[in-house]
Design goal:
The complex is a heterodimer of chains A (227) and B (247). Chain A is mostly helical. Helix content of chain A is 87%, strand content 0%. Chain A has one domain (3-226). Chain A is built from nine helices and no strands. The longest helix of chain A has 30 residues, at 96-125. Chain B starts with 11 loop residues before the first helix and ends in a 7-residue tail after the last helix. Chain B has helices spanning 12-44, 58-85, 88-120, 128-149, 153-185, 200-232, 237-240. Helix content of chain B is 75%, strand content 0%. The chains are: A mainly alpha (227), B mainly alpha (247). The interface between A and B is medium-sized, with 31 and 27 residues.
């Protein structure tokens, strides 16, 4: 298969998932509202002291983004698995890995990117400085694709399994720990004057690593689920 | 010279009696090493100058931590063998190891907090080692939960294998990220590594206990693997003809 047709397959997979999501907007919006509500609950639970809120903001927003991404994982393969589309994808002449990469990219465009764009508005509620907000967006833009990539492995493993929704959190959340540490750490390092570049570089390294391995592992997991 | 067929014991049918012969051997070794290790740790090893008698929990804590990490790698190895060579027994062994590994991870956390209370004055600190051990425990739980959620045993083996292999790649990343996170957040107020160099008898006691735990793990995993074989192969003719199952 030529390189050009692989790219067009990838593009078609992305377009298809985006189109499906646009037909049912509420699925995408629910995830976003979940993120907003979780972030708004923390000041209510902890108290309105601005100093405290400013300190916990990076961690709270990152944990919220992480949970929101995890909740939207079931959308990734479940519908295609139930109506048999996934099986046709696996049987087609196109490499399944390319289709998986396309689906993961679409998932990030629908779940990760909106979170990153929404985060600065929530950050203002926590009285974060403009510079810290910029770093927060940068860390989320680099970090959320890793969440989608690792999460795809968990989503594929729990396909058609009893209690899949709860199970996927047990599988995926421990693997999210490094992303959370460096993502929230980037903002905190910037606030404390250490500079965020080291954290962002490490996040980008994780993205490169996950981008290489995760579609491959996801494909293997999907083939097991489809047997 | 006759060619040794190494793959002979990769069939559950021939592995089942072999495991039965090996269990008493490893269980016996575990008892011997355990008795020697406990004797040294309680009666031979000197009282620590700084920590008093409370330090003696190290003889359970450190070997348990070692084994919890070692067993995860071994489990992932057999899971990988099972998924790449498509052997049934390797997957069974991997799922037989998991509960023992989870038990050691829990034991390590538990004894760690028992040790932390008299030493640091607190049950738990967000130390890099404690935190990564906790995440390792979660990884074990995820593996066990995934396998028990899938009814088809072969699919459970393969799905667990992928999870275990992904976990093995992640363990070093998790360890280093937690370590750097820890040093950034708080100066290393508590450090296990800064302790004065260990007396030789203490090291011997720890190694003996580690050997005892290791032999125990093998014996228990083999016993569990036998149970899994019986459960999965219960419709096979050779299982029905086993003398211990004849009524």
């Amino acid at each position: 298969m030529s390189e050009a047709s692989l790219w067009s397959t990838f593009g078609a997979a992305v377009r298809r998932d985006l189109l499906l999501a646009m037909r049912r907007k509420s699925d995408v919006l629910t995830t976003l509202f979940f993120f907003v509500i979780v972030a708004s609950l923390f000041p209510l639970g902890i108290g309105p002291e601005t100093d405290m809120l400013r300190r916990i903001a990076p961690g709270v927003l990152w944990v919220g983004a992480l949970l929101a991404t995890m909740l939207s994982l079931s959308r990734l393969f479940a519908a295609d698995y139930i109506d048999g589309t996934l099986e046709q994808m696996a049987l087609s002449a196109v490499p399944l890995g390319v289709l998986v990469a396309g689906k993961v990219t679409a998932h990030w465009l629908l779940a990760g990117l909106p979170l990153a764009l929404l985060a600065p508005i929530l950050g203002l509620q926590f009285d974060m400085a403009p510079r810290a907000l910029a770093v927060l967006v940068a860390s989320l833009v680099i970090g959320t694709p890793v969440l989608s990539l690792i999460g795809a492995i968990g989503a594929a493993l729990t396909l058609g399994v009893r209690g899949g929704g709860v199970l996927v959190s047990l599988l995926v959340l421990p693997l999210y720990v490094p992303v959370l540490i460096f993502g929230a750490g980037a903002v905190e390092a910037d606030i404390s004057g250490l500079g965020a570049s080291a954290h962002l570089s490490l996040l980008a390294a994780m993205l490169a690593l996950a981008g290489f391995f995760a579609p491959w592992a996801t494909t293997a997991a999907l083939r097991i689920a489809l047997e | 010279m006759r060619f040794i067929n190494w793959f002979r014991f990769s069939s559950p049918q021939s592995f089942y009696p072999l495991a039965a012969k090996m269990i008493p051997l490893f269980a016996g070794l575990a008892v011997i090493f355990g008795a020697a290790g406990l004797y040294i740790s309680f009666f031979v090893a000197p009282t620590d100058a700084q920590q008093g008698e409370a330090y003696r929990i190290i003889f359970v804590h450190v070997p348990a931590s070692w084994l919890s990490m070692f067993l995860y790698v071994i489990m992932a190895f057999w899971a990988g063998v099972g998924v790449s060579l498509n052997t049934r027994l390797a997957g069974m062994v991997a799922s037989a190891i998991a509960p023992t590994g989870a038990m050691f991870a829990f034991l390590s956390l538990w004894t760690g907090s028992l040790w932390g209370k008299p030493m640091w004055g607190t049950w738990w600190v967000w130390d890099a080692r404690l935190t990564s051990e906790l995440i390792l425990f979660f990884l074990y739980l995820g593996f066990i939960a995934l396998q028990s959620a899938i009814d088809d045993a072969r699919r459970a083996d393969r799905a667990g294998a992928i999870l275990a292999l992904v976990g093995v790649i992640n363990i070093p990343i998790i360890y280093f990220s937690v370590k750097w996170w820890n040093t950034l957040h708080q100066g290393a107020s508590v450090s296990l590594t800064r302790a004065p160099s260990m007396a030789k008898t203490m090291l011997v006691g720890m190694l003996l206990m580690a050997l005892a735990f290791w032999m125990y793990s093998i014996a228990v995993s083999l016993a569990r693997a036998r149970a899994i074989i019986l459960e999965r192969e219960r419709h096979a003719v050779w299982v029905e003809e086993l003398p211990e199952l004849k009524r």
